[in-house]
Amino acid sequence: MMGRLTFVGLGLGARGISLEGVVAVKEADSCYLEYYTTPHEPTLLKELENETGRVMTVVDREFVEDGREILKEARGSRVVLAVPGDPMIATTHNELRVRAIGQKTETAVIHAATIPSSAASASGLHYYKFGRMMTITRETLDSMQQAYHTLQTNLLQGLHTLLLLEFDVEGGEGAAPPAVIGGLLRAEKNFGREVLTEETFALVLSRLGRQDSELRAGYLKDLRNSEYGEKPHCIVIPGGLHFTEVEAVAAIFGLGEGEVRDNSRNMKGTAEVLIPRYAAKTRRALNSARERLGRDYDTLLENVELYTKDAEGFLARGEHELAMLSMGYAEGLLDSAGFTGRAKIDW
Amino acid sequence: MMGRLTFVGLGLGARGISLEGVVAVKEADSCYLEYYTTPHEPTLLKELENETGRVMTVVDREFVEDGREILKEARGSRVVLAVPGDPMIATTHNELRVRAIGQKTETAVIHAATIPSSAASASGLHYYKFGRMMTITRETLDSMQQAYHTLQTNLLQGLHTLLLLEFDVEGGEGAAPPAVIGGLLRAEKNFGREVLTEETFALVLSRLGRQDSELRAGYLKDLRNSEYGEKPHCIVIPGGLHFTEVEAVAAIFGLGEGEVRDNSRNMKGTAEVLIPRYAAKTRRALNSARERLGRDYDTLLENVELYTKDAEGFLARGEHELAMLSMGYAEGLLDSAGFTGRAKIDW
Hints:
2 copies of one chain form a homodimer.
Chain A: E1 4-9, H1 19-27, E2 30-34, H2 44-52, E3 57-59, H3 61-66, H4 68-74, E4 78-83, H5 91-102, E5 106-110, H6 115-122, E6 134-136, H7 141-156, E7 161-165, E8 167-168, E9 173-174, H8 177-191, E10 201-206, E11 214-219, H9 220-223, E12 233-237, H10 243-253, H11 270-292, H12 298-316, H13 320-339
Parallel strand pairs in A: 1-4, 1-5, 2-3, 2-4, 6-7
Antiparallel strand pairs in A: 7-12, 8-9, 10-11, 10-12
């Protein structure tokens, strides 16, 4: 008999498995359940066994990472590995699948709900406006820096950010929302790029898809001092908001529409901040320089004016890097008179 | 009796509903099924009715958009609206939920597998490396431009891009992979930003999660001339690849590892292309200018050197806009000698 390894997603909550998944479990010769890496509803195992009439062999992460026993068995029989959420989100399960394919064992994947997509859809925000997400295992300096950077990149594009607060298997601890929020605010203090403030609007989704799920929305200053109970948690920091998103978030989280804030509104990229400021300064300096410089500077000054205009044009077309190049060039041209002692340039 | 409106996700395929969803359908006073906007497996309705023992009332999009009947009913009884995939991904269902909350009807959401997350996890790529996704309803000039732009933004950050090929309800037509691939290649011809070529590596996932699903991988020149059968389809254009992603994609799609290409490898942002080139040119021009300019230019020339170095430093730290500003400034300073007739600058 040809063997087969089927990865069955258990979705969210204790009854998240699909009917297709139930059939796969029933038809399997042996069934493994790996849920050490994923916080799950306490009744999961019992519900699963009741519904399928099968006994699940609960295995730990090492067993799956090692994989030799499962792979050996799957050479000649139908093996199911059941995993909370969608089974192929984790690298470990992907690697096991690659090894199974490598030994010519047929594989199959039965998808299920997973936190990243469910968090997006549960939030009332538009799914296609989410940027890159980030997983935070512990509130380390490095992971906070990365989250801060991801947030900046997304907010600059008006995109929403999902932060998945993960569960550290060895330490037995998950990253709790207050610690992560505190870490983000400290990152702001260190980097000072005006990515977030205590007034930044955010959503905290706890135990999504479970009976005891809790959804909270508010400003970071308030959210950092709350209790959120059992893991898992995730945090969504919205970017630009369409009015239907404001309505949906307000309704779902029980807020007034005025309380739902657009965190991208005041976010500006370097060029957007600097070009208007520099262009104005350059024009003022140009005017005062004109009076002091002779005719041999006419062409140069004309070019200062032209390149300043170019910078504004590039900015308007979203070509921020070329805008900065033009702006710098105009400033350099004008400043040359100062460096060569021809005229003091008043910036 | 207090009413309730429950949105039940049907996941992928005909048996994608979760056990939780089955319970909700069984307990409801009335059950609606809306699947006009989403291509679904033909046996879906039959399987659903068999499994739940309930008759589903199949409704069209207008019925859901209008919503008055459902909302009225949900005021005093338990109503289920079943939707393929995850129920809250579509704006229509979100809006209905907001209206239900507005009339003080309790709402609940039962999540399920959805194409965006399943496509990411089925592809063998790391989920957290996906950037913003895009939905393409028809291969219009505008949507192709937007997809091209999204692709560029993602690839520059090394991120993967998911293009969801949607289904146009009124026209009864979906965007087919060959047309979309052709449209992207034409966008490249128009914009010329070297975002993609005929050699760009891509994945096409058709009817994901269904019995008749088909996964294909290859280069755009080959993929554009293939047949993909029934909708739905989606396209994944990978960005930077970790070696475990190369292994997984090769195994899942039956390719040699050498055939799996990193589309981000040669992607460079404007500053990354221009700064090294401009810095070299400026240093050459600086050397030749030194011989021709007098001592009054010493400070200026020293600053040209310093700002060129600054530009390289900013680039190395990822501050592309400041790098361009410095580079432009250095060039402007040096070029001033040409504009004022002091010395011809040989660039």
